Here is the input.
Amino acid sequence: MSLPRPTRLVRSGRFAMLAAAAALSLLAGGIGWTQQKSPYVISQRGRAFHPTFLSLKRGETIRIVNDDGDLLHHAYVESDTFNFDSGDQLPGSQTDIVFSVPGTFNVLCGIHPKMKLVVLVK
Here is the structure.
């Protein structure tokens, strides 16, 4: 079996589809994901949330794990429709957040102001 020549891929539009699939694959691995099942595990390490974006359905849960060996974290959400406060999170600890209403929410750290996780709840 021989592979199609690149010019045929470009003409047929398959090249654009392959490029789009590759780009989506990179985004899913580096920024956020929607494939995992609830609870979605979010790591706090290096003074950042990993991933930084997550899309989920109303009623699903995220589990935030403090993977920083020597840093405290303090996750919170403040909005007109939803609020959450984890309190101080010791290294190795975890806390769950159930998103019961739709919307776009910023999960922030009260100790490290540059930490931000965006959660889109459908």
Summary: The two ends are 44 Å apart (CA to CA). The beta strands are 32-33, 40-45, 48-50, 53-56, 61-66, 75-78, 83-85, 94-98, 103-109, 116-121. Confidence is low (pLDDT under 50) at residues 7-11, 17-34.
